[in-house]
Amino acid sequence: MSHDRWLDQVPAYSLGALDVEELAVFAAHLEGCSDCRRELADYEWAVAALADAVPRATPPDALRARLIAAASDRDARGRSPETGVDPIAIRARWAYWLATAASLAFAIWAGAGYLTSRADRVALSAELETASTLIAALEVEQMRRDSLLAALVGTRIETATLASTGNEPRVRLFRNRGNNLLLVTAFDLPAAPAGRTYQIWGLAPESDPVSLGVFNTGPDGTAVVVRSLAAAGGYAQSAITDEPAGGSAQPTTQPFLVGAWAAGQ
Amino acid sequence: MAELYDRFASRVYSVGLAITRDPRDAEEVVSDTLLHVWESAGEFDRRRGTLSAWIVSIARSRSLDRHRKRVRRETLQAGETDRIAAFTTSEPPASPDAATGIRTEFGVTVAPALAAMPVEQRRAIELAYFGGMTQSEISRALDVPLGTVKTRLRTGLLGLRAALGAAPEGGGS
Question: What is the ipTM, given to two decimal places?
Answer without folding.
Answer: 0.74
